[in-house]
Design brief:
Radius of gyration: 30 Å
CATH architecture of the largest domain: 2-Layer Sandwich
CATH superfamily of the largest domain: Histidine kinase-like ATPase, C-terminal domain
Oligomer: single chain
CATH class of the largest domain: Alpha Beta
Structural class: alpha/beta
Distance between the termini: 48 Å
Number of strands: 20
Strand content: 15-25%
Amino acid sequence: MNENGTRILIVDDDEALLEALPEALQLRMNGIGIDVSESAQRALELIREVDYDAIVTDIKLPGMDGLTLLNEIKELRPGTPTLLITGHGEHDLAVQALRGGAYDFVQKPIDRDYFVASLERAIRVRRLDRQVEEQRRELERHARVLQHVDRGVFLVDDAGVIQFWNPAAAAITGLDPEQLVGRRADEALPGWDVVGPEVPVAMEPGPALLEVKTFPLEIDGRELWLSISGVRFEDGVVYAFRNLTEERALDELKSDFVATVSHELRTPLAAIYGCARTLLRRDLQLGDDDRARLLEVVAQESERLTRIVGDILLANQIDAGRLRLKDLEFDVAELVRAVVDEMEAALTGKEDIELELSAPESLPRVSGDEDKLRQVLLNLIDNAIKYSPDGGRVGIRVEQRDGGLQIAVSDEGLGIPYEEQQRIFGKFYRVDPQQTRGVGGTGLGLYISRELVRHMDGRVTVTSREGHGSTFVVDLPLLPITHREQAVISQPA
């Protein structure tokens, strides 16, 4: 591993260790830079000055123990991996350290092979974090360059009266010049009495002299986020603004998506990594049952990752109009029973949820995309279970109605506020976004379900009362079996 440019900090009050450990590391890790500190206080001074690739500290230090130092590091440098050195028999402290965010712990006497390997992994993780952050900043820079600029311009004289209001300003705000010109700005423009004094005004034009601020204005019940700046001229101020409402909403959507997906990916990745590291440790004696349980966690969390990535890719296909639906003969009744059996198997040991299926023995065989309908059913039933944190009955009803097929999934869970019911089919929307009731997910399930059903010439509707559960109904046309092509291209979303 080429460590050129890498710099770490070792904190320990053992002078012999502070001499021996850096020498050993420099022999094993070519070109690594190492700072040392005998106290936590001095270490914090160095950490404030230097963004280290990794920090190694004894768990017991005079004046400030390693756990307290770990908390301080997380405040100052939350992205820096920290390894703690523990003594024999200090397992409880090691567990506390891991819970507090330590990357790993190493027991004395130090196994140098394990220590070097763990330190190299920590450094790689830090480098990847930096690369991701730099890519994020680069994407943000490109996004700003590519933003469409749509500027409104208006003029306010020294008496505070609007003298000019250009067409772009009217288009952005919906306010006609005839309503505004000749009136005082603080009377004609909603909220201008508060916003106006805060707008930066340059004394002369020039890009280097212009400062811009963004303010929210509520106009005719709409909240507009306007980026505004001004330039003084002889008889007043010329203001220029552009509408950032959509960009702000998009940024919030991106932030929500990144936060949601990061959380959803981090949980299974952490579980997989923890199990894998435990299985690889030679200093732990694991029985066959323990190994089997750890491997089962790895398998389950890997499947969870696959579902998350699959949802993201499928949503992208839908948005790009590249979704293809199969057109094959299948038995709807058999499909529904298979999905319910699958969900019941997944609920083994969870006795507070009861799945109840109501379906005729047989239904007419139809032509369509069995896999996509199966995904819709899995999404709806899984949602019903997730949003029933206190348990209850989840009902699945299938019937032939008015020349079509109706599938209803109902629960007795959280329910959906009336004002939110039109939003739940949007991308990334979750009824419990802060996960206050422990409900996770990417917020793509209902969006994907609605789009899949729509591409089957059907529709999804919902009825719900907050605190009394929800019922999602899928209505599909009962298409006859045909001998058409095996795949049809869906219409773009």
